[in-house]
């Protein structure tokens, strides 16, 4: 493998998709959702034998630098860099180009993600290897398009055009266009057409090619890269980075460059890939029980079916319920219907009222539920505030707990083994 090949792993994140297990201080890439090590550690491991640790960088936010260094101790500490503020992927790519340029102006590098699950690793590495070889000698911008297996509506797509010669068994195409996340009918059409691929968010290019593209389509980012490259790995680096990032616009690399450039190639990715975007995605990586429950951790059930339950540290019991997501993490419990998982990604008012308050309470050591039991108890009443009938355990009510919208005939029991827990149940 050439000594001019580098990798940059993007490891930002707000900790919303897997709340309450993930938080702003412990976002998805730092979790061991699938496998024994964190997703970030797995992203570094996937490069073994392809790109050595000293040529692998991680870009994260400034508050996660120490945690990222702990998650990937095989990397040199200076290779894990914290952005002063999040400005989306285009500024991150410019920063990545600057870091590689400072080491090797003739280098080629791949942009990878820290929070995806990838299998068929030999095939993944071969795809990267062939792409890096092309990118190092041609003025092209390359991306990996994943062969779709179903009409997914959660991914953007790339329309592939002219087929090019294969390289070591990997197929390459010219890119016709990038398209936004489609509705189901449109996604089905893409699948039937056969020349649309999921946009993986992984890219490969040389330093010269990506800086040339930035200069053409987003000059301010090309200037950023030149300024940062001049001070990278010096005492002036952090202060210069902070002064530059403060006023940058927030923009993705797709909008800034990929939707405008005319020298884009697509490498066909036929390895197993999953961006693990929500709790429901875990069903792809764990075996269901006989009732279709995905059970991770200490879980018991009676007449429960189709549920996804995560409870590694404490026992969670389900009775007579179906198609729910139940998560117990660090004394906080999430319960929602499976088909409403996307609503609790921390967006809008729901995040403000519920998850932020509970996260703040958890930081102060206030939230500490030991056990959750769901049971169809035929509860009634339409109270706007605390409902005495809901307090079936005789708990002293002191502090609000906001729950998902209640459905008829279903009630939540909250039990605590130690001191009484102050909980007010609101519908």
Offer a quick outline of the entry.
The chain contains ten helices and 19 strands.
Distance between the termini: 60 Å
Mean pLDDT: 84
Number of strands: 19
* Silhouette: globular
Class by alpha and beta content:
alpha/beta
Radius of gyration: 24 Å
What share of residues are in beta strands? 25-35%
Looking at the chains present, what oligomeric state does this protein adopt? single chain
What order do the helices and strands follow? EHEHEHEEHEEEHEHHHHEEEEEEHEEEE
What report would you give on this structure?
The structure is a single chain. By secondary structure, the chain is an alpha/beta fold. The protein is 26% helix and 26% strand. It has helices spanning 39-45, 65-71, 89-103, 121-137, 184-193, 207-217, 219-231, 237-245, 253-258, 348-363; strands at residues 5-10, 56-61, 80-83, 108-113, 117-118, 141-146, 157-163, 172-179, 196-206, 264-269, 273-274, 294-302, 308-319, 324-329, 332-337, 371-375, 400-402, 411-415, 424-426. Strands 12, 13, 14, 15, 16 and 18 form a six-stranded mixed beta sheet that branches. Strands 6-9-7-8-10 form a five-stranded mixed beta barrel. The radius of gyration is 24 Å and the shape is globular. The relative contact order is 0.12.
């Amino acid at each position: 493998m050439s000594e001019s090949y580098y990798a940059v792993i993007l490891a930002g994140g707000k900790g919303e998709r897997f709340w309450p297990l993930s938080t702003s201080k412990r976002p998805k890439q730092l979790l061991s959702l699938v496998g024994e090590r964190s997703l970030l550690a797995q992203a570094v491991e996937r490069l073994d034998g392809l790109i050595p640790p000293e040529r692998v960088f991680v870009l994260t936010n400034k508050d996660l630098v120490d945690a990222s260094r702990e998650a990937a101790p095989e990397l040199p500490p200076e290779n894990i860099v914290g952005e002063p503020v999040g400005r989306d992927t285009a500024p991150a790519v410019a920063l990545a180009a600057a870091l590689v340029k400072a080491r090797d102006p003739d280098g080629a590098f791949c942009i990878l993600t820290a929070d995806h699950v990838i299998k068929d690793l030999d095939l993944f590495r071969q795809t990267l290897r062939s792409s890096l070889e092309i990118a190092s000698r041609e003025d092209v911008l390359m991306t990996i398009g994943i062969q779709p297996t179903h009409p997914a509506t959660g991914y953007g797509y790339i329309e592939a055009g002219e087929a090019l010669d294969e390289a070591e068994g990997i197929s390459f195409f010219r890119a016709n266009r990038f398209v936004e996340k489609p509705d189901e009918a449109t996604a089905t059409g893409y699948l039937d057409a056969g020349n649309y691929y999921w946009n993986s968010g992984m890219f490969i290019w040389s330093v010269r090619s990506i800086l040339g593209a930035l200069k053409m389509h987003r000059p301010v980012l090309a200037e950023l890269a030149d300024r940062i490259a001049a001070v990278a790995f010096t005492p002036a680096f952090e202060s210069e980075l902070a002064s530059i990032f403060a006023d940058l616009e927030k923009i993705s690399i797709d909008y800034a460059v990929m939707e405008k450039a005319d020298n884009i190639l697509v490498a066909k990715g036929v390895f197993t890939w999953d961006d693990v975007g929500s709790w429901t995605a875990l069903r792809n990586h764990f075996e269901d029980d006989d009732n279709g429950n995905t059970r991770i951790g200490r879980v018991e059930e009676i007449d429960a079916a189709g549920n996804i339950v995560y409870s590694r540290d404490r026992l969670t019991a389900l009775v007579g319920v179906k198609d729910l997501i139940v998560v117990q993490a660090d004394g906080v419990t999430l319960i929602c219907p499976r088909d409403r998982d996307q609503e609790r990604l921390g967006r809008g008012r729901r995040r403000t009222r519920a998850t932020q308050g509970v996260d703040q309470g958890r930081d102060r050591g206030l939230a500490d539920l030991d056990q959750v039991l769901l049971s169809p108890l035929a509860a009634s009443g339409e109270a706007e505030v605390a409902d005495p009938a809901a307090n079936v355990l005789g708990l002293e009510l002191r502090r609000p707990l906001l729950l998902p919208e209640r459905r008829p005939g279903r009630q939540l029991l909250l039990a605590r083994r130690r001191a009484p827990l102050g909980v007010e149940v609101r519908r």
